[in-house]
Amino acid sequence: MPVRSSLLTRKRMRFPVTRRTLILGTAGHIDHGKTTLLRALTGIDTDRLPEEKRRGITIDIGFANLELGPWQLGIVDVPGHERFIKNMLAGAVGIDIALLVVAADDSVMPQTREHLAILQLLDIQHGVIVITKCDRVEATWLDLVEEELRRLTLGTFLERSPIVRTAVPSEGPAQGVEALRAAIQSVCQQVVGTPETSVFRMPVDRAFSVPGMGTVVTGTVWSGQLNVRDEVEWLPSRQRLVARGLQTHGRDTQTIARGQRAAINLTGVHPNEIARGHEMARPGYLTPAKLLTVELQVLGDSPRAIKHRSRQRMHLGTQELIVTVALLQQQAIEPGQSGLAQLHCAEPAIAIAGQPFVVRAESPLVTIGGGRILQPRAERITRRQLTQVERLKALQSTDEAVRAAAAIYFYQIKPWTTLDLCRDANLEADRAQSVVEQLTRSGEVVDVVLKPSRKARIHRAVLSELEQRVLKLVEQLHAQFPLLTTIPRDRVVARYGTSLDAAMIDSLIERLIGRGELRGDQQAVALADFAPRPSPVQQRLRDEVLASFLKAGLEPLTLAELSRSTASKPDDVRDILDLCAAQGELVQLNDVLYLHHEVEVALRLRLKQALHDSAGLSVSQIRDLLETSRKFAVPICEYLDRIGLTRRVGDLRVLR
For labeling, which of 63, 85, 223, 608 is most exposed (least CB within 10 Å)? Predict the structure, then answer.
């Protein structure tokens, strides 16, 4: 049963074709004549291994090239035997046009169906159906084969593709080859591809050494372009290498581009270190990761469901990985259904958002499904995180701004670049910056200033979550310290922990103060509507303390004296002193002395009047005027200097 695109599957983005290089790939059952057909079509034998020549079957992927009018086709020939499906998968990725090859004397066979399902899962969009060995059967039988192929491809990308009848006998001229050329050229005109501004990426399918040149890797260029002497990043090692030389279709070139079979001569690495499944890419573009978020689909004719926590074999690009499936919405995905999942990979995976993959059962080896990458480097999500699971769906959107906003949301507070968005939201390099600017103008992404030369770009929902967290922490601190009218900022920072730096927390606080949800200054903050809530016992202590200060006048009690007179613990008295000072009922002279606010008001009036009628007063004169002792007169004078009522001139105080 052919796989159909689920409702959640994002269709491949389409752009007017601007290139004339395409990849043509074969598919089909073993011994259906794929390699023989390509030899007749191109004059090239794609079987390069001695074992292939000896056994007469294709074991590994082979390569050829073909010019059809303005089109330069790189051709990938894949093995048809079920034991070599992993090689077929490595060759099938990145092709633009598929040749589904079916022998007339066998008609549709098991690998015909499996290869077609794989092409569907890999989102191949164009193809030609070729019937080979037509000279071995009657014309009426060929009509039946065609009818069976139409039924097989119903609902797939090959549903309306041309069917070409061919024969390549061991003796005599080949039949139908020119018709096949015409059919391929016609399909080439329908192909649309990615613009040249995409970021360079090439999965490796072979690595070897060439005498006098050194290490060479080959592959299909998936996106972007690379020039001679450009630096590339070798994944998953993250090592940077230099492209010493380039070839495409056996010819030296200064540039390789998307849609070409290419060879890169590298410096600084031994070929034995590079394996199929590795990639070459623009530095900083790809990030190997062991956790992927995906949309997972099970083939309608799969012999089994994919269950939560099951182990499967994943084919991603030219990689083959063992993965453990964590389903996010159900316990199992039944045949014909799809769902969101996270894949825990045994080895680092290399991918971009939107990239298709294929899933095969670990044992027996059979293709059971596939899907698309949503997050090529993911954080663990559980089923209970319903908001996170819902936000994953935005990554499947056909709207690039919606995908970018979702990717930025999942970055949380981590720094990111437009190159990250190219990978995580599948954006073109020349579109990423304008998409970010669009999101910033709409308010979906907010610039948060941390320092004059430093800012963070954060999704507005993440920013709101962070602000609510700050408000919640201040609320918790108010509950813990109910007598404090404000909370020192450093306590808020300490309570938040290490998940945010102090600069970010300060910026969040300033935003909340600006909106009126907090009040405060650089030292302390409080909820806008917060007022201390002393208990009945604390209220009685407060009344006693205020009465004591009012009675003491300009000779106030110390903390220890208040503790003894009220029979209270010093810490409890200190809390009441802080509360009364914050509410303006007490005035703090220094670290240990307070005055009742009424006493302080009378003090200022009396001293202001006395200084107005004199040229200045000494501490002793002020002491006598206030009828107190030097013990209190000195801190009173210092306090008055500090608040700007007086200033010291020699040994005298004068009005400021």
Answer: 608
Indicate if the pLDDT at residue 298 is higher than 90: yes
Dihedral of CA atoms 214, 218, 222, 228 in degrees, nearest 10, equals 30
Q: What is the mean pLDDT of residues 293-311?
A: 95
- Predicted local confidence at residue 206, as pLDDT: 87
Confirm if 599 and 586 have CB atoms less than 8 A apart: no
Q: In sequence order, which residues have a C-beta less than 8 Å from that of residue 165 and are 6 or more positions away? A: 104, 131, 134, 142, 175, 176, 179
Within 10 angstroms of residue 517's Cβ, the number of other Cβ atoms is: 17
In this model, does residue 3 exceed pLDDT 60?
Answer: no
Is it true that domain 461-527 has CATH number 1.10.10.10?
A: yes
537-656 in CATH: which number? 1.10.10.10
Q: What is the pLDDT of residues 99-138, one digit of tens each?
A: 999 999 999 998 899 889 989 999 899 999 999 999 999 9
Pair of tokens at residue 252: 């030296």
CA dihedral 257, 258, 260, 263 (to 10 degrees): 60
Evaluate the omega torsion of the peptide bond into residue 236 and state whether it is cis, within 30 degrees of 0: yes
Q: What whole-number distance in Å separates Cα of residue 290 and Cα of residue 349?
A: 6
428-465 confidence digits (pLDDT tens): 988 999 999 999 999 999 999 887 778 899 999 999 99
Task: Give the predicted TM-score (pTM) of the model.
Answer: 0.81
Please return the burial class of 461, using the count of CB atoms within 10 Å of its CB with bins 0-12, 13-18 and 19+.
Answer: middle
Per DSSP bridges, beta strands 646-649 and 652-655 are: antiparallel
CA distance between the termini of the chain: 94
- So where are the chain's domains? 1-16+289-442, 21-188, 201-281, 461-527, 537-656
Closest by alpha carbon to 49, among 231, 212, 208?
A: 208
Pairing assessment for the beta strands 21-28 and 97-103 based on DSSP bridges: parallel
How far is residue 466's CA from residue 497's CA, in Å, rounded to a whole number?
13
Q: What is the longest distance spanned by two Cα atoms in the chain?
A: 131
Q: Is a pLDDT exceeding 90 seen at residue 346? A: yes
